[in-house]
Design brief:
214 residues, Rossmann fold, 2 domains, eight-stranded mixed beta sheet, 8 strands, elongated
Length: 214
């Protein structure tokens, strides 16, 4: 009789543990959902054309990134240089993929070319230009509400025995607020400006080449 009573008591205790676990899970609720963001969604300015597409072929990349951009989390810089990772706001596919994709899409629109691709590429056509990038800094500084930017890039003319041209983009544009959406939009604006500079330099070199052609 005592053994049966002990079994019943143990079963009741186990049921109470299960109920307690369910109650605790209900009180704590679900974990916050992770938001994913993409770059390259902004419609950039395209060039005016007469109907014929450009045949320019451009390879974007490779790019070197600081360690804090090699993570999927969206980053900000706090007090005393502390790097803060937002676990619930991430770049879809990682920052590098988004960064190169956004530049290639924007430059394709600016040049009106379907031959602008990202590194690595298995494109079946030769390239006229290669854009190599080195991001030294691209981070939201929380105590100043700015996006700190320092990007070096080289424009390489494929098939030409000339040294690549080197450029520097260094700026600190204000960010509307400290929301993730405002920070993503600030990244889009910086990339749009970078794309404009790359397109202008390619246009300058193409005009110079045509001027030398008899």
């Amino acid at each position: 009789m005592r053994k049966q009573s002990t079994r019943v008591g143990a079963a009741r205790f186990a049921m109470l543990l299960v109920l307690f676990g369910l109650l605790l899970a209900g009180c704590l609720g679900r974990s916050p959902e992770v938001d994913h963001f993409m770059l390259g969604t902004r419609e950039s300015e395209g060039r005016e054309t007469s109907g014929a597409r450009s045949e320019l072929a451009v390879l974007i990349g490779p790019v070197r990134l600081p360690a804090y951009l090699e993570r999927p989390q969206i980053v900000s810089l706090g007090d005393a240089g502390e790097v803060q990772l937002d676990e619930y706001s991430r770049w879809l596919g990682g920052f590098e993929e988004n960064f190169l994709r956004a530049i290639s899409l924007g430059l394709a629109r600016r040049l009106d070319s379907i031959k602008v691709v990202t590194h690595p590429s298995s494109a079946p056509f030769p390239f006229d230009y290669r854009v190599r990038l080195h991001v030294d800094d691209l981070v939201f500084v929380a105590d100043r509400d700015v996006l700190r930017v320092r990007i070096r890039w080289a424009l390489v003319r494929e098939g030409k025995e000339v040294a690549p041209e080197l450029f520097l983009m260094e700026t600190s544009p204000a960010v509307e607020d400290d929301s993730v959406e405002a920070r993503v939009e600030a990244h889009e604006a910086v990339i749009s400006e970078l794309v404009g500079r790359i397109a202008d330099e390619i246009g300058r070199l193409e005009d110079s080449e045509q001027a030398r052609t008899p």
